[in-house]
């Protein structure tokens, strides 16, 4: 089992709909969770972080964390063509660990 | 604005050359990282450093070395470049503890011919 697992996609969503991206992780001791967006040919940029169970909203983005199920998700409301990118889930797998472990990413395409 | 700057956006080098990739950050971050990113393999950690002159191997250190003489600068060295080191190289930095995530540089696309 991979330490951080994502469905590679591609995931196609109509413009204006909700895009749902999922990530599971292996270590119950994980404390910090991040979503990065990466446009083709560019470097990853941090869009959301979450540390506690529940939902965290920032504009059109909502991160959801369920530590019991070892599951973190990202919802993008009112999807726009500019949201088309690869989304990387990253987890700080052990408390105090200096490193993030990344999933391989989900490629999202928003269809106009 | 937080900046992590990588010295080159694109590089083409010959097999056997010694290659230096430079990364500078201006956020006073203690931690710095070098990753490579390849299609289907995701981000793989090469080396990281949590303090000046300190370094630790990541998951794929073979064929690479690093240098951190100053807090803001972290260099990746390919001792003798090979074609299988053709990749996108990403530098990142962070505060200790992993709570705030990384800030990435813009990346260096290295081609070894």
Draw up the topology in text.
The complex is a heterodimer of chains A (112) and B (113).
Chain A: E1 4-6, E2 11-14, E3 19-25, E4 32-38, E5 45-50, E6 54-58, E7 61-66, E8 71-76, E9 85-92, E10 101-102, E11 106-111
Parallel strand pairs in A: 2-11
Antiparallel strand pairs in A: 1-3, 3-8, 4-5, 4-9, 6-7, 7-8, 9-10, 9-11
Chain B: E1 4-6, E2 10-13, E3 19-25, E4 31-38, E5 42-49, E6 56-57, E7 64-70, E8 73-78, E9 87-94, E10 103-104, E11 108-112
Parallel strand pairs in B: 2-11
Antiparallel strand pairs in B: 1-3, 3-8, 4-5, 4-9, 5-6, 7-8, 9-10, 9-11
Outline the structure in words.
The complex is a heterodimer of chains A (112) and B (113). Chain A has 112 residues and is an all-beta fold. In chain A, 0% of the residues lie in helices and 54% in strands. Chain A has no helices and 11 strands. In chain A, the strands form 2 sheets. In chain A, strands 2, 4, 5, 9, 10 and 11 form a 6-stranded mixed sheet that branches. Chain B contains no helices and 11 strands. Chain B has strands at residues 4-6, 10-13, 19-25, 31-38, 42-49, 56-57, 64-70, 73-78, 87-94, 103-104, 108-112. The radius of gyration of chain B is 13 Å and the shape is globular. The N and C termini of chain B lie far apart (36 Å). The A-B interface holds A 31-32, 34, 36, 42-46, 49, 51, 88, 90, 92, 96-100, 102-105 and B 31, 33, 40-43, 45, 48, 50, 58, 90, 94, 96-107.
In short:
The complex is a heterodimer of chains A (112) and B (113). Chain A is mainly beta.
Relative helix content of chain B: under 10%
Largest interface: A-B, 23 and 24 residues
Q: Evaluate the radius of gyration of chain A.
A: 13 Å
Number of strands of chain B: 11
Distance between the termini of chain B: 36 Å
Shape of chain B: globular
Question: How far from one another are the termini of chain A?
Answer: 36 Å
**Poorly predicted ranges of chain B:** none
Give me the Rg of chain B, rounded. Answer: 13 Å
């Amino acid at each position: 089992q991979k330490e951080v697992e994502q469905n590679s996609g591609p995931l196609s969503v109509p413009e204006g709909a909700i895009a749902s991206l999922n990530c599971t992780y292996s270590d119950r001791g994980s404390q910090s969770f991040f979503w990065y967006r990466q446009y083709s040919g560019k470097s990853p940029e941090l869009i959301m972080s979450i540390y506690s169970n529940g939902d965290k909203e920032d504009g059109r983005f909502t991160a959801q964390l369920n530590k019991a199920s070892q599951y973190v998700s990202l919802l993008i409301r009112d999807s726009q063509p500019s949201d088309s990118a690869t989304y990387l889930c990253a987890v700080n797998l052990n408390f105090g660990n200096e490193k993030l472990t990344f999933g391989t990413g989900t490629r999202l395409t928003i269809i106009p | 604005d937080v900046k992590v700057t990588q010295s080159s956006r694109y590089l083409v080098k010959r097999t056997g050359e010694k290659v230096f990739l430079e990364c500078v950050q201006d956020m006073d971050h203690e931690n710095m990282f070098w990753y490579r990113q390849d299609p289907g393999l995701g981000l793989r950690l090469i080396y990281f450093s949590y303090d000046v002159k300190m370094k630790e191997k990541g998951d794929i250190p073979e064929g690479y070395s690093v240098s951190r003489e100053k807090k803001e600068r972290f260099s990746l060295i390919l001792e003798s470049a090979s074609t299988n080191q053709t990749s996108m190289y990403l530098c990142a930095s962070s505060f200790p503890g992993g709570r705030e995530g990384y800030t990435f540089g813009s990346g260096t696309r290295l081609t070894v011919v």
